[in-house]
């Protein structure tokens, strides 16, 4: 039994937080490049914000009856939830690494 795409859910753009720009890859990285770690983090947080805004917009449409397919909202809400959980996990690991470094004896 073949499985096809789900309605307009394919139109919801979601880029994983692990996607790095071409200039930020470790192979052939240019130290004078304008794309740095901070830019990657800011881009990932902007992507998280956009994913949450999409889920909020679809939630409003579902609540007012303007959304034809409720599964579009369900998919967007799940993507936003997973992106938030991933961001929190990365933040927790970064704080843990910082704490570990600060506790090292000199």
What does this protein structure show overall?
With 106 residues, the protein is an all-alpha fold. The chain is built from two helices and no strands. The protein has helices at 37-64, 70-102. Helix 1 (37-64) packs antiparallel against helix 2 (70-102). 8% of the residues are buried.
| Overall morphology | elongated
Major β-sheet, in short? Answer: none
Strand tally: 0
Q: Could you spell the SSE succession in H and E letters?
A: HH
Distance, first to last CA: 63 Å
Task: Write down the Rg.
Answer: 19 Å
What is the count of DSSP helices, taking H or I runs of 4+ residues?
2
Which strand-content bin applies to the residues? under 5%
What's the helical proportion of residues?
A: 55-70%
Unreliable spans? none
Mean pLDDT: 80
Structural class: mainly alpha
Features:
mainly alpha, 2 helices, elongated
Summarize the structure.
It contains two helices and no strands. It has helices at 37-64, 70-102. Helix 1 (37-64) packs antiparallel against helix 2 (70-102).
Would you spell out the secondary-structure blueprint of this structure?
Elements: H1 37-64, H2 70-102
Helix pairs in contact: 1-2
């Amino acid at each position: 039994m073949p499985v096809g795409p789900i309605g307009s859910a394919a139109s919801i753009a979601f880029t994983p937080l692990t996607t790095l720009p071409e200039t930020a890859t470790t192979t052939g990285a240019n130290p004078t490049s304008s794309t740095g770690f901070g830019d990657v983090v800011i881009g990932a947080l902007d992507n998280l914000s956009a994913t949450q805004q999409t889920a909020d917009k679809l939630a409003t449409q579902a609540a007012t009856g303007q959304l034809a397919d409720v599964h579009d909202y369900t998919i967007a809400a799940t993507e936003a939830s997973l992106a938030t959980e991933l961001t929190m996990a990365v933040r927790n690991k970064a704080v843990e690494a910082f704490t570990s470094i600060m506790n090292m004896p000199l």
